[in-house]
Fold:
Amino acid sequence: MTQSAILPAKGPADRLTALFWRHPRVLLALLLTPPLLWLGVVYLGSLAALLLQSFYSIDEFSGVVRQEFTLKTYGELLRPSNFDILVRTVSMAAAVTLACAVLAFPIAYYAARYARGHWKAAFYLGVMLPLWSSYLVKVYAWKLILAKEGILGWAAAQTHTSWIIDGLLSIPGLEGSSLSTSPLGTFMVFVYIWLPYMILPMQAALERVPNSMLEASADLGATRAQTFRTVILPLALPGVIAGSIFTFSLTLGDYIIPQIIGNSANFIGMAVYQLQGTAGNIPLAAAFAVVPILIMLVYLGLARRMGAFDAL
Amino acid sequence: MSAAVEFLNVSRHFGPASAPVKAVDGVDLTISEGSFFAMLGPSGSGKTTCLRLISGFEKPTGGAIRIFGEDVSNTPPHLRNVNTVFQDYALFPHMNVRDNVAYGLMVKGMGRARRHARADEMLALVKLDGYGDRRPAQLSGGQRQRVALARALVNEPRVLLLDEPLGALDLKLREAMQDELKALQKRLGLTFVFVTHDQHEALSMADSLAVFNEGRIAQIGTPQDIYDRPATRFVADFVGSSNVLPPDLTRALGGPAEWASLRPEATRLAATGPLTGTVKALRYLGSGTRVVLDANGTEIAAMVPAGQPVPAEGTRAAIAFDPQALHLMGDR
Amino acid sequence: MRSDRSPLSLRAAAIGGLLFLHLPILLIFLYAFTTEERSFQFPPPGLTTRWFATAWFDRPDIWPPLYLSLKVAAISTSIALVLGTLVAAAMTRTAFFGRDQISLLILLPIALPGVITGMALRSAFGIMDIPFSTWTIVLGHATFCIVIVFNNAVARMRRLSGGIMEASADLGANGFQTLRYILLPNLGSALLAGGMLAFALSFDEVIVTTFTAGQQSTLPIWMLNELVRPRQRPVTNVVAIVVFAATFFPILAAYYLTRGGSETAGMGK
Structure:
């Protein structure tokens, strides 16, 4: 019973624990040093290298990278052929984001408001599994669906609705021999692949809308449409913006989908890939890669103002 | 009796030095060995921080703490021979009850058979024989509380710290545990330091208590001292539902122009008296009725024992009291 | 709005949306059994299981990419487990200067499009003349896997009653004993879940990898080449099934390991 009030330190583990207790910052530094070294050197270092490369230029005759500061490479982005790529990519990202928001809403709304118990879990898994499962496999599945002889063409032929697809494919800008070689196909696959990224934050935002608020709106005599427009939509908006960060950013940077499905019109990602690979023009590739970063910085700044980060 | 715990001008400030949040500010305190000491105060008054300063989870930014005469400034929690019963019990969810209780012995290197035997003894002491194989999640709140107690006591600490241990229990269980804790403390002769915001709990269990307000100790004393002779308006107000009289009223009643407290139980209703007012509210309490008078804007409560006539609301009444019951508090 | 029954049209749209997310994947399975190897004809003219045998016995080009993918995923996951857990442990401690910046830094590799991470690494390798190897692939993968482990670990640490670490110290355990007997047992399933998700993510990654692999081929890169220049299309489907399974089961396992809390795995990809 009459042990001392202070126990003696036994061994190095006790003494080290005492050291960490006396100097918590030592422990913090030990914990943070390895991951920060990794992220700081590997990741930030690489981003710095990217930025550096984008200010270099390539010698048009020898094809050698000239390591001198110049804005010439950024100037090349404004050439019509390159500028087209930027416009095409941003338009696609905007269209995909809009379509994702529209398609995601019923799923997110149903899962947030009505699904209970097992259904809730099923909905959650049902969204999460496609989100995580193999990206390439999903793209490949759509190659099967959209091919001329594929399931969509077959279903259209069976129901005598092939004229719809043919009609769509004859619209200027959407031309192709089948959906899998038309920009429309590219768009559809983008929407499919990024849809779960829109559903989850939207659902999270909608789950924060208390039922009592909807009831209050109904009590005050609002019709369903009015409740939807004046209560649910504004409250869901932060979730939509949070989701749109993903759909927009992911579309901006993707280069696999337009490479496999579509009319091989160039997108930013494809341009980056081709320039650094076969063309060997790393400075221009780097300058192209900086564009999505800038766009996303502006986008994130706007989203932060609209309170989207509370929904992440 | 020697001192179990001493605080020498202890402060714990948070945040920047330019604008510190003073959780504990210049506290001097002596807790004698074998006593049941309560730290009482509203939330944010610094009482829990003081407890954590003893266990070592907080470090003082000023002053020194001694446990049985030894300065613990450089001693981490795991080398302090004091144990804590946490507010939310903090039982280890992945261990059964026996392993929870035996944990302290295990990390000190005691063999499995011996430590399990000791754990079972402790479980018997807190009346949980036979619960050793259960998981904490399978226990009720009261049972978890006992496991937490056994887990702390098995280490034979020099001081047992209890952080609002009864706060999560319902009233009936709480009262039963109060008696049990008090009995246990007497039997073991151990120093208990008990943090609570419940003045009834503090007054009924403690040998002595400290009332905390805004990081400082407002008063230290026996429960009787604190209740009968509150040192400040804050103590009078917080510890009992006492009447606090402003200086001009005290003078009107024949005292000096100082703040004073007057316990409702020390008053009686009378036909005439030094203090008259209109009956504003009545509250039936079973053992009596609490009558609130409005005496020229100051509310004064008096107790009418059960069986005696109670005046109707809106009528005039007078309060009489023994002049000795009027307790002066100075200007604080 | 007051009734708890949903309008039929909403329910139909929601369930239709879920089916839209899942049905395409089933086609992958169907086409692994088709007898037609040159086109994606639907319905398949006939069904056969011979492509599985072909993939196993007659396509030696599948095995090296499979090994490389497994190797990269295993190494990247191990690195991410260590680094992600360390940051999580640091971040759940008291606030410190630069905390917000660090969480942004962890999130960045997955918040920015993969092509940027890939191109950034490619630029760095170019400037420093680093030759492509397994390790250049691992550098990229481990970087974006850290956040996955971090998310899982940090969510569990927040849910753990903070008191149990203090209780352990209070009862006389030093920091290493607390780590071994209290923290790791309670963190274990969250780390396992994080590790599985990281493994799935790495095994399947193609965008960053194309920039960091040089002439090497991981399984997704092999698949990508087959998509662009197909040889035996059903064999690609067989491999796709393998890749799908290698991501599907870890995700499902991660979900069941962490369900029942606000921390459920997968919210943070």
About this structure: The beta strands of chain A are 57-58, 65-66. Chain A touches chain C through 100 residues (CB under 8 Å). The two ends of chain A are 54 Å apart (CA to CA).
